[in-house]
Inverse folding.
């Protein structure tokens, strides 16, 4: 089985807003993987976002920028829920 071909075919089934966090120093998947995923899903481009972490390798939530990565995910969730930029308050 060609894992890459199967994965790319399955990406077409994704049609939801998406946040991709990617390290530029990534060597396990390669930084180009984020763009491949974003370009392969079926959701509108305005519903996807790639956030790059410059010094980060594979596993952005375990490296030196982990707090920033977690804050990025929370901010994205708040934004999607309309709770960021004057849309309300959310306490965590």
């Amino acid at each position: 089985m060609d894992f890459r071909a199967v994965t790319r075919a399955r990406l077409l089934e994704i049609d939801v807003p998406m946040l991709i966090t990617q390290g530029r120093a990534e060597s396990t998947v390669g930084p180009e993987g984020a763009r491949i995923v974003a370009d392969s899903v079926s959701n509108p481009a305005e519903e996807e976002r790639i956030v790059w972490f410059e010094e980060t390798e594979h596993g952005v939530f375990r490296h030196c920028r982990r707090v920033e990565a977690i804050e990025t995910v929370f901010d994205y969730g708040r934004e999607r829920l309309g709770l960021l930029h004057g849309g309300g308050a959310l306490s965590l």
In short: Helices lie at 3-11, 32-40, 66-80.
